[in-house]
TrEMBL record:
Subunit structure: Heterooligomer composed of large and small subunits.
Name the UniProt record assigns to this protein: Exodeoxyribonuclease 7 small subunit
EC numbers on record: 3.1.11.6
GO molecular function: exodeoxyribonuclease VII activity
Function comment: Bidirectionally degrades single-stranded DNA into large acid-insoluble oligonucleotides, which are then degraded further into small acid-soluble oligonucleotides.
Keywords: Cytoplasm, Exonuclease, Hydrolase, Nuclease
Domain of life according to the entry: Bacteria
Compartment(s) of residence: Cytoplasm
Cited HAMAP family: Exonuc_7_S
Family according to the record: Belongs to the XseB family.
Enzyme class: hydrolase
Amino acid sequence: MNDDAQSADQALNFEEALKALEAIVHKLESGEAPLDESIALYERGNALRELCQKRLEAAKAKIEAISLGAGGTPVGTEPFDQD
């Protein structure tokens, strides 16, 4: 994948990147693309998958659990713990 395409992909939000990835998967599964194009699509799809994964990890890191006091009012937050 060239630098221009990589830069353009980095500008995509999560939903746009996921939609582009879904389109690539559909095209690869359909067998419409010749071999060289399929390889390029696979490489871009893999880059988009990595981008989506990083965006999800960043979002998960921002999630905070809200602690409630005796009266049910929020008293503080703590980092998200997935375990």
